[in-house]
Amino acid sequence: MLKALRRPPIELLSGLHGNWKELCIKIERVNPVLNIKFIKWREPLDNYLKLNTDGCSKGNPGEAGGGGILRDHQVTTWLKDWLY
């Protein structure tokens, strides 16, 4: 499942020119919208391989890790590797 939070439109901030009170009032009125999209892994076409990867970091700079898995159309795992 993929979750994304939509940012308020930039028009919200146009024309304020340093008016902090008005800016704070507009920001308090923003209602964020949460969009949820269900995603599913699909096997690649015949005679193709699919590489799926993922990674993350703890700070910037900081500890990081990542990895990937390579599979064919029969979902046979060809290679998997994780780096930390």
TrEMBL record:
Which residue numbers delimit the RNase H type-1 domain? Answer: 45-84
Q: Report the protein name in the record.
A: RNase H type-1 domain-containing protein
From what organism does this protein derive?
Solanum tuberosum (Potato)
**Top-down, what is the taxonomic lineage of the species of origin?**
Eukaryota, Viridiplantae, Streptophyta, Embryophyta, Tracheophyta
